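Lecture 7 notes: from sequence to structure.

We start with a single chain of 167 residues. Read the sequence below before looking at the structure.
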Amino acid sequence: MPFECFYACEVADSVKVERALHDAFGDHRINPKREFFRLNPDRAVAILELVALKDAAPCTEIAEDQVELDALHREQSRREQFRFSMVDVPVGATLTFSKDDTITAKVIDDKRIEFEGNITSTSAAATKLLHRRGWTLRAAQGPLYWMYDGETLAERRMRMEDGADSD
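Now the structure, written as tokens:
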């Protein structure tokens, strides 16, 4: 299954770090036979940054070929399109960029934000900010990079969807 690499780093003892990550996030594993977890990537990054010797995060999308890249984008678009109402974020709320909390945006309706004086999507604004940091990816998933009330919009969505499943 194609995937988006959110962060990568070099560590001194990769086996030990991988074991610790599996212990910490094992209950978020999608399939016990695969190395994929359903969680906010910032949680894993917070741990990895403690043991990182060198940041090795890619600044572009990783795919073997165009077929894999197309599959990645198809997979990303399968979920219902993000709306602020699905995660109880009110119009007028202030969002912060997860990589720099001095950067903010204002929610103006159920799908759009005001960022740097322009009406745009969270994805377009995140892509713009990541490009400023030297990333060359074609598009970023906005909910991974914008925060409300101490959590990313993606984490908030996962939490609320998981809560709905247990009702």
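The mean pLDDT is 82. Keep this in mind for problem set 3.
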